[in-house]
User: What shape does this take?
Amino acid sequence: MKLRQNGTVSDDQAGQFQKSFIWMYLELTKDQTNPTNPNKQASPSILIILMGSLGDIVRALCLVSHIKSHWPKSRISWLVEARWAKLIRFHSQINKVIIFKREWRISALWQLYKELSQEHFDIALDLQRIFKSGLFSLLSGAKRRIGQHRSNT
Assistant: This one.
């Protein structure tokens, strides 16, 4: 997302960003909307991966409420960099904040892998859409990983 000189984004860019979140939510719930579906999970463990800019994180916070309205007993964790962790913790429907400690370099990956593998996620939502977040989605071991290629936004 490119910023204008005054630090804002165009309405078109903001609209594309919102569309990608709507797509993620629909993708997340499409197999779970049929009450007769025998595979329906009553309380999936979900990892949201979005570590980026403050604006992206603030816009994405509404996704948590939508997920909880569909799966009230779901367990939601959010993977974020340390500088935004306090903001994420303010959301009452987020059960756990997982912090990627970038300054630790390679040892941060090992620590993150150990922490993610203990959680046993059912679903990973990659909202960042970059190589690093894709790798973290893979490391989560989630049974279902949902992301969107940048060319589709």
